[in-house]
Amino acid sequence: MNSQQRRAERARRNRPPRRRVPWVAGLAVLVVVGALIGAIVARSSSGSKTSGDAAGSLLASVTGVPASVSTAVGAGSATGPKPIDAPALTKDGKPLIVYLGAEYCPYCAAERWAMIVALSRFGTFSGLQTTHSSSTDVYPSTPTFSFHGASFDSQYVAFEGVELAGNELSGGNYPKLDTPTAEQQQLLDTYDAPPYVAANAAGAIPFIDIGGKYIVSGATYDPGVLAGKTHEQIAAALSDPTSAVAKGVIGAANQNTAAICSVTGNQPAATCSNPTIAAIQATLG
User: By C-alpha distance, which of 238, 260, 261 is closest to 68?
Assistant: First the structure.
């Protein structure tokens, strides 16, 4: 090895090793980006378009309607739950309320507002998401919430919210979301049919069973009062007892509240002893 070759070999040995961190970091970025894209694709392919957990301020407006407004609205423009003769429906020693609907359904979209107002008088929701009904159905894109993935905690009642399908058409169908249990399906098949509902309304959603004592089949007020409004506008209108929104949503919530009080033994007293609720309860049968 001549002197020139020896100098080249020493230079090669003293050269700093090549840095591999940027390549590893680049790979990590690609992995993260790929995971995010996969999550987005999986979300969109579910056929359910939601916008994440409902903002605290929005839910506060919906669940914090002043008692004076509820009193002024009374039964409002809503029809009440229908009494049925059936075995008591319970879960974990508490009356059970079962809701079956679908995110595409505009009638379900309307009824969820009232259900959330009513149930929030007995407990607390978590995981509610804002969404809307189908953009291609009647009352298109009615703003609402979804019970899919949500939970409800109460010392007075148990609640099961089932969203049968999403709100985004895929191949001409709305993709499935929640699968009803055998008991939930039996309730739907038995009580969402004659003689409990008219033959031409059998199988309608939303379907709600309140403790085995009352049922709701279809919306209890006109979904059209919500048309053209945002979630925030609807929530704000709930505090105006003269608005068509409050007469529908709060009226339905008051009637649902009275039915729930009937199955809880009028507990909690702070809710069920309200004169407006007690007066509605007396008319339910």
Answer: 238
